[in-house]
Amino acid sequence: MRLILITLPQLVVLAKILCILMVVMCGAAPTMVRSVSLHAVCSGRNVTVIGRTVTAEQRNDSNAAYQELTTRSEDFSRQLYIYAEKSQRYICFNKRWKLVALPKEQKGPMCQFFEMYRDQYLSYRSVVDKTRYIGFNSRGKPIKRPHGRKECFNFMKYNPHVDISHHNSLVNAQMGGMEPREPFPVSRKPSPVTRATKNFLLQADSARDHVQTPPHRQRHLRNRWKQRQNGKNSAPRRRSENCFVQASK
């Protein structure tokens, strides 16, 4: 009797653990799904699913909802589905290896991808063909050929609901309501070309100040100055002589 009383709580705990494991293995436990956006590195735009069309476009108020995606898996393998919530479609390859968006009834192996890391970026490889990746060119159009620029097959995943201004306001409030400071002015050193030009101009100014007038030029200037002085002194005499002549007449 004592043995039963001692082991009964342990059996209850083990039974609960087994029930939880069975529920998880059967797939009845709800999975946590988070909306994300895929940023195509080559085009600098986000993957957008509108109807059957899959492109990469700039984010705005009209297409923001069509850029919210989720990655789902039906088992514990690495095979994922990329689901567009607003359009309620899955990103898939068709028979010609063109990216299309298909409803749930038409999804299949061509809609499954392996999520792989390339340096700091993500890439999505088809489960059916190892040489096929999801990619967009610089204009945001899907790439059909398996060969191309590597950065056109790279993506960055981020949360589309993050508001940077709201985050900054929260951080500002936690710091005691201090207003954000203006960035400090950065002093940049002048380039070698700028320094050489400045030194050349300074040398030219100093040389111009130290240039002396040649001797013949100095004599010419003195003679002209004397002529002007003589002209000023002789002008009143001429006027008096003219006045005397007019009076005698």
UniProtKB/TrEMBL annotation:
It comes from the Eukaryota. Residues 216-229 have a biased composition (Basic residues). InterPro entries: Fibroblast_GF_fam, IL1/FGF. GO terms for molecular function: growth factor activity. Residues 204-249 are annotated as: Disordered. SUPFAM superfamilies: Cytokine. Belongs to the heparin-binding growth factors family. This is Fibroblast growth factor 18. It comes from Dinoponera quadriceps.
